[in-house]
Structures are given as structure tokens and as C-alpha cells.
Specification:
CATH topology of the largest domain: Pseudouridine synthase
Strand content: 25-35%
Structural class: alpha+beta
Low-confidence stretches: none
Largest sheet: 11 strands, mixed
Oligomer: single chain
CATH superfamily of the largest domain: Pseudouridine synthase
Distance between the termini: 23 Å
Number of strands: 15
CATH architecture of the largest domain: 2-Layer Sandwich
Number of domains: 2
Radius of gyration: 19 Å
Length: about 240
Amino acid sequence: MQEFTALDGALLIDKPAGPTSHDVVDVMRGQFGIRKVGHCGTLDPNATGLLIIVLGRGTKLSEKLMGDDKVYEGTLKFGETTNSYDSDGEILETKPVPPLTVAQLDVLADTFVGDQMQLPPMVSAIKKDGVPLYKLARKGIEVEREPRLIHIYTYRFTDYTAPFARFRVACTKGTYVRSLAHDLGQKIGCGAHLTELRRAVSGKFDVADAIPLEDLVKLSRAELEARVIPFLKLAAGA
């Protein structure tokens, strides 16, 4: 059996706002000449935080790593509903925001905890007849989407300075945090959309242990290899 190399495994990257998850994959290929590179769980371009990059034979574990639970931190804005459920989209409706407190928001957020069927936003990478929904949305086409079963473990607010609220949510894979923001706004009656999102945790991995992308590109080959989590450690779930 072929021995594993120092570049068979995973790398934890702190993605900045701007590049897509695939852009980070391209950086790994171009900067270090690694042919087999993948990522575990897409982050929207404006989202930041933990992006797990798999290298070499580590790509065989991408499905396993992608299935792990996630923790996100972010900010939402009340009073504005957008077509994408985040600040990248067009504002569809503006409404006055009622007086709110962190305690009131936590009570409302608790209603989302547990199993639920979540309707994905039109502006998403989910495909309908092979075409990503966001491409249809750009043409003004809205299609029926299948709700997906997700689970919210915790959903808490840490600050509210009208009309912005900071939150932290722990959830299963496939959860659209944008949809959570939108649905909370609908429940309150004033609308809301996501303005900021950061992935803090994925499975056993924490963004505190990730390397910022701007620092990654300065690494030598040896320094990169030293940061790779080995395949066998990943496979063992360590």
C-alpha cells in the first residue's frame, strides 16, 4: 500500500470576506502546486471563518468532514427583508422595528431550537434540474424548493443595538443561517436579513486553530506541511 505523504490530510483556514470557498481551493493549487484539493462546506463569499481544506488522499474524507455539526456567529439587521436573506440581495420590503431586547430575542430564538423543516433561499447553490437556484434568481425566476430537515441545538443572542443583533447558533450541516435570520424577522413582523456571518466551529475543529488566508500564502512548503492534519488522524476522528 502506498504510504501517506505530509500533504495527505486537512488544513484549517480562516477565510476572509471576499473570496469564494473555491477561490481558496485555487490558491492552494496555484500557490503550492497541489493537484488534489477540496473543501468541506461552502462559505458564502462575504462569510468568514473556518474552512476545512482537504489535500491529496484527504479528499476521500470530505463527505465525512462535511457532515459534522457547525457553530456560527453573526449579525442580523431588523426592518429590511431581502431576496437573498442577506445584505448581498435586493431590499424587497422595509418596515419599522418594534422595541426589542436580548432577552426577548432569546425567547423567540428558542422557538427555532430542535428539528425543523427549513426552506432554502432562492439565492443558493442548490440545483433545480441541474441549474443552481441563484442563477435562476438572477433572472427573476422563483421555483418551488423542497424544505430540508435540519436541527438547531442552540440559538442565542449576545447583543442588540437597534436595528442590529449579534447571535451564536449551533446547528446541523445544511442549515441556512440566512434563512434563520429571515424567518426570525418574519416571526417578529418587521423582517430581517443577515449582514455578517462567521463559522466558528465545524465538528471538532475550531477557527482559533486556523491560519488566516493572508498568512497561508506566505508559508514555505515545509511550513505548510507542518500545519496539515494527517489523514490517519482525520480518519480516526481525532
